[in-house]
Design brief:
Layout lengths: L3 H17 L2 H6 L5 E4 L8 E4 L2 H8 L3 H12 L7 E4 L5 E2 L1
Helix pairs in contact: 1-4
């Protein structure tokens, strides 16, 4: 889980995403995503989602918006690996 700065960055990224992706995609996928590792000055932001279809959408059609939003709040281009979360707050392989 990110610290306070990571949480603020993620909330700011969600504002960008809310304005840039279709409302149904935001409600169906984006709102369930969580930042697992997000720090200013790093080149990677790890985002977790609870279902495989969400990971597929975020790595496919929604990937440009996700990477753009994170780049805006972090001030640099980032790689954004997506993790699948299990019901026990663990990351699946």
């Amino acid at each position: 889980m990110p610290g306070a700065e990571g949480a603020r960055l993620w909330q700011a990224a969600l504002v960008y995403l809310r304005a840039s992706v279709p409302a149904d995609a935001y409600g169906r996928v984006v709102r369930y995503a969580v930042a697992l590792d997000l720090r200013r000055g790093h080149d990677v932001a790890v985002i977790g989602v609870p279902a495989e279809y969400m990971r597929a959408e975020l790595s496919g059609a929604l990937a440009p918006a996700l990477t753009w939003a994170l780049g805006q709040v972090c001030g640099r281009a980032l790689r954004v690996p997506l993790a699948l979360l299990t019901g026990r707050r663990e990351i699946a392989a």
